[in-house]
Amino acid sequence: MRYYDDHSPPNFHAKYGRDQAVISVADLVVLKGGLPPRALGLVMEWATRHRDELVEDWNLARAKAPLKAISPLE
User: Fold this and answer.
1) Collapsed DSSP state (helix, strand, coil) of residue 56
2) Given 3-state DSSP classes, what are the helix, strand and coil percentages for the chain, each rounded to the nearest 5?
């Protein structure tokens, strides 16, 4: 699911099972919701490695342009 109408600050959505969180790209703070600690740690590690790509996708989403795929955590 893409969230083209999301509001600032730049953020991304992470889901794990029934849990989900909205996380700020700039400072990696959970803005809404939550994930289990281990899942959140993995998401934060992934986001740290891909922050520039997350910013790029945020800008594409705001322009209603197709997003670029971001590699998973390996």
Assistant:
1) helix
2) 35, 25, 45
